ATP/GTP-binding protein (Nocardiopsis composta), 100 residues
Amino acid sequence: MSPRRNAPRRKGGRSQQNDTDPDALMLRVTGGQRRETGPDGEWVTRSISGAAAVKTYRCPGCFQEIRPGMPHLVAWRPYGDGEDRRHWHSSCWRRRANLF
């Protein structure tokens, strides 16, 4: 017989991390940031999971919609105020190097 657990199990098997902390939730859901350098300069990117994608965006690579629930990425310049953030389909982001 296995020993008794002292703490009750949570539904869904989720960790007992503080779910009310928005920063912890964003890091857990969206993953980390990454710096990339390409023919069009330096960028910071962050992958967005389907679960975290809750709004509709327009991809600047193909001009099609990125619908809620679709995994994609966000890219912006490492300098400045972040006003140039754009949501891209992951495949469009990889193909952008062919444009320059």
Observations:
- DSSP finds two helices and six strands in the chain.
- Strands lie at 33-38, 41-48, 57-58, 65-66, 72-76, 86-88.
